Amino acid sequence: MSRTHKEIEEGTKFALDWNKMSKVVACGQPLVPVAVQDADTKEVLLVAYVNKFALDHTLATGNATFWSTSRNELWEKGATSGDFLKIVELRVNCEQNSLLYLVRPAGKGACHTKGGDGTVRRGCYYRTLVNGALEMCDHA
């Protein structure tokens, strides 16, 4: 059963996209995952993917940049919303197959979704799993 973006992003049904990695592979780009964490609060804001082009753009601009696996294009976070994520530090894991961007948000939030009051959410992890259903976190 296909669900709408609203059902996925705002709903209470716990239904992970078990096909996400297949979609990542299908985009045809050599990618590594990148976790994005607020440098000050340590909150995990989002997880995305980068290719060499996106990493080079990040290093050149100081703005967190990713490869959009759904649109198959460069995605500089904040380019359209103004909610840039400024790089404070870039870390590489032990096996050199994933990255961690420590950032300072330069706008209202990091997520493309908005809370009930219409403001951009600070990060993408705004729901918690409770008894098999999703509930909004206190900070959402």
Structural notes for this entry:
With 140 residues, this protein is an alpha+beta fold. The chain has a domain at 30-112: Roll (Ubiquitin-like (UB roll)), CATH 3.10.20.810. The chain has 3 helices and 8 strands, in the order H-H-E-E-H-E-E-E-E-E-E. It has a 4-stranded mixed beta sheet. A two-stranded antiparallel ribbon has the order 3-4. The two termini are 27 Å apart. The model has no long low-confidence stretch (mean pLDDT 92).
Total number of helical segments?
A: 3
Q: Give the N-terminus to C-terminus distance in angstroms.
A: 27 Å
Quaternary arrangement of the chains shown? single chain
Give the SSE string.
HHEEHEEEEEE
As a whole number of angstroms, the C-alpha radius of gyration is 15 Å
**Roughly how much helix do the residues carry, as a percent range?**
10-25%
Write the layout of secondary structure elements.
Elements (H helix, E strand, L loop, with lengths): L4 H6 L9 H7 L5 E7 L5 E7 L1 H10 L3 E4 L4 E4 L8 E8 L6 E7 L21 E4 L2 E4 L4
Parallel strand pairs: 1-6
Antiparallel strand pairs: 1-2, 3-4, 5-6, 7-8
